[in-house]
Design goal:
Length: 730
């Protein structure tokens, strides 16, 4: 026996976690990207020191703290935030150090990540299973000193593990795992229960195990990913990391307190509602609430992207072989057409064409077998080509389906609320933070809009933002003294800007709107190139009858539709106090127990056109009789009637002649028929012939008259149309 086999018993050491403690004590880690290894001490996590929340659904978070020397800071984030992190993260080292790199977990499952290391720690392996994966590696084993004469330390390469059984008679009393090592003095066997400490001599294996343990420690939450920040430098210094990630929109709510007697200035309180949806407490953070709407979007930077590259086949030069001669071209073309259709018939046709001819030109025997073999190969080639074509099409479809998604918000004016005191907010908690407290200018009004409430106006306020800060949109709870008065809602209000709000129905005031309409009257007539332009003016009136049955005076704001885009203009009406794109607002004071009315008149001009050449005499006379038509235009229209009468007379005379010609033509057709039917020697024939001759003479006269009348009608029409073309007068 060439080696000494020793067996020593100690307490058992089990579990991957315990094995990790035994496997090494170094603190070095591998630099990202395969760089030279740098000794980095894991720093205490940087706490959140500043939070800035935006109303666009994102938040800026800053973490800061002091570090010493070369440091790695480990942070964890939900997987959904990694894209925002990669897009917005900034790191600063305020000392003489510098930011080395930022490493983060891939999107692969942790099982696949652990399997990529030299020692696979998946499925909670035992010490024996770990050592089995490291067969052939050099290890240094420290043994427990409970047996006299045993060595304290053994160094050797792992040969393998085996299980030894202790028996008593035929019964197995115990089993133990034994590590077989190839040492300098031969093979040694060490019970794992005797091992006090074990270390891999190979630093690469040691680093692999350490990195695998780091992955395990940072992935206790499967929904989170680890991000490591590497700072290199000397001495103690401050570092900071900032990033923008998705966060709930912060909201505002207001309380407005009115004095019942109206003697004191109204007071407003504004509260911000913020949420901490993270798994980390905010302790003593500096908080800012920003009411702007910066453009914010998501981009997929986490998933790896690959560029589709073309595959280029290498050019091959085949050696010369005995030539073969193809068959009929017509058959080859037909086979190619079948191939394009995907038919298997093409395979047989091409196989026959590719089959070599037998000796002496024979077409059986060898030729047939060669054709069958070629057909099988060609059919396999076609199937491969079709599969590649389908794969190429599917790949192209999948690439086309990849679109950058992108989301954009409306811009707005930025305004920041800085909380004066540090904020403490536990994780998964929400808080109300006071942001506004002071006086605000407000005037009581009653707002009436028929489309909102047909009978009663709404109690409201004309707010003027005298707080000096931007008021973000949100609900307002109104109190009169200590009594709840109602709720309202306000949009964003800039400093010094005024805005109306309503919070209750004014049951003490009634409004009855009465409508009145007038048909359109002609107010203007003009002519341009023979076209009459008529302007009609339509008038609408609406009277608001108001009764104030309450014991206090009211200032009524009547909201009336603004129809400027429909051509309506206010006439003979009090000037509105406000004008918006949709409404006019009229102010009307009503004393307690009194009534009153307000009439709003609107007019709209509508233009109509009439072409004189297409109208009749009565329509022209209608315009001549209108008072709004100028004397000059009346004279021109009268002249147009005269010219039109000449043209109409010429048309009538011409139509009469044409009717006579048509009558004679029809009668001559009848005479011709009769002349063919009766004998030429009969009296009837002579009578028909004489009448036919008389009609021919009459037809000659009518034809001459037709030409003269056509010329007269043409001259009259040209004169009329020329006159109309030059008829332009206001």
């Amino acid at each position: 026996m060439n080696f000494l086999r020793r067996v020593m018993w100690l307490t058992p050491v089990l579990g991957a976690a315990t094995a990790a403690i035994l496997l090494g004590t170094g603190t070095g880690i591998s630099a990202p990207g395969g760089e030279k290894q740098t000794e980095l001490k894991t720093a205490v996590g940087l706490p959140i020191s500043r939070v800035a929340l935006f109303s666009s659904g994102v938040g800026y978070f800053a973490r800061s703290g002091d570090v010493d020397g070369n440091v790695r800071v480990d942070l964890t984030f939900p997987e959904r935030d990694i894209n925002d992190l990669l897009k917005s993260m900034t790191l600063e080292d305020f000392g003489d150090g510098q930011v080395s790199a930022v490493s983060y977990d891939s999107r692969e499952p942790i099982d696949r990540t652990l399997a990529s290391f030299a020692i696979n720690l998946n499925n909670n392996p035992t010490l024996g299973q770990i050592l089995t994966q490291a067969r052939g590696e050099q290890v240094e084993v420290v043994l427990q000193q409970n047996v006299v004469g045993q060595p304290g330390t053994i160094s050797g390469k792992i040969v393998g593990l085996e299980t030894q059984k202790s028996t008593k008679g035929e019964d197995v009393v115990s089993q133990s795992e034994v590590l077989n090592l190839w040492c300098a003095d031969g093979m040694r066997a060490v019970k794992l229960s005797d091992v006090q400490r074990l270390r891999f001599v190979n630093p690469t294996i040691e680093a692999e195990v350490r990195r695998a343990l780091e992955v395990l420690s940072l992935n206790h939450d499967q929904q989170k990913k680890a991000v490591s920040l590497h700072f290199t430098g000397q001495g103690r210094r401050k570092v900071q990391v900032g990033y923008v990630v998705e966060n709930p929109v912060w909201k505002t709510s207001y309380r407005l307190v009115l004095d019942k007697d109206g003697k004191e200035v109204p007071k407003v309180q504004g509260w911000a509602i913020v949420e901490n949806p993270t798994d980390e407490d905010w302790n003593g953070v500096e908080m800012s609430l920003i009411s702007g709407r910066p453009i914010s979007f998501k981009m997929d930077l986490y998933n790896p992207l690959y560029v589709n590259r073309p595959t280029v086949e290498p050019e091959l030069f085949a050696s010369l072989r005995p030539p073969t001669y193809s068959g009929d071209i017509a058959q080859l073309e037909k086979a190619q057409q079948e191939l394009a259709k995907g038919s298997d018939k093409a395979v047989d046709m091409l196989a026959m064409d590719a089959a070599p001819a037998g000796e002496g030109g024979a077409m059986g025997g060898m030729s047939a077998r060669g054709g069958a073999a070629n057909g099988t190969m060609l059919r396999k080639s076609m199937q491969d080509r079709r599969a590649l074509l389908r794969e190429s099409e599917e790949r192209q479809l999948s690439l086309n389906a990849v679109q950058s998604a992108a989301t954009a918000a409306k811009l707005g004016d930025n305004f920041s609320y800085n909380i004066n005191k540090a904020v403490d907010l536990a994780r998964q908690k929400s808080a109300l933070l006071p942001i506004i407290a002071g006086e605000i200018e407000a005037k009581r009004v009653s707002i009436y809009n028929a489309s909102v409430q047909a009978k009663h106006p709404l109690l409201g306020l004309r707010l003027k933002n005298t707080t000096g800060v931007h008021l973000m949109q949100g609900p307002i709870t109104v109190f009169e003294g200590a009594t709840y008065a109602g709720d309202t809602r306000v949009l964003d209000i800039q400093p010094k800007e005024e805005r109306l709000v309503s919070y209750a129905i004014d049951l003490g005031t009634e409004v009855n709107p009465v409508n009145a309409f007038r048909n359109g009257n002609i107010v203007k007539v003009r002519a341009q190139k023979g076209i009459i332009f008529t302007t009609r003016r339509f008038r609408e009136e609406k009277t608001y009858q108001v009764v104030n049955r309450s014991q206090t005076d009211r200032t009524l704001l009547i909201e009336h539709p603004n129809r400027k885009n429909q051509g309506f203009n206010l006439v003979n009406t009090v000037k509105p106090v406000e004008e918006t794109a949709e409404l006019w607002r009229f102010e009307m004071p009503i004393a307690a127990g009194k009534s009153g009315s307000l009439t709003i008149a609107e007019e709209r001009d509508q233009q109509e056109t009439v072409a004189i050449s297409n109208t009749n005499d009565d329509q022209i006379r209608f315009f001549i009789n209108q008072e709004q038509v100028s004397d000059g235009l009346k004279a021109k229209l009268q002249e147009a009637l005269t010219l039109k009468a000449k043209m109409d007379n010429a048309k009538r005379e011409l139509q009469k002649v044409l009717a006579d010609i048509q009558r004679i033509t029809q009668d001559q057709n009848r005479l011709r028929q009769n002349l063919r039917e009766v004998p030429q020697a009969s009296e009837a024939y002579k009578r028909y012939l004489k009448k036919f001759d008389d009609q021919e003479k009459e037809m000659d006269g009518l034809t001459t008259q037709q030409k003269e009348l056509q010329n007269s009608e043409f001259q009259a029409r040209v004169a009329y149309e020329t006159f109309l073309a030059n008829l332009t007068i206001e």
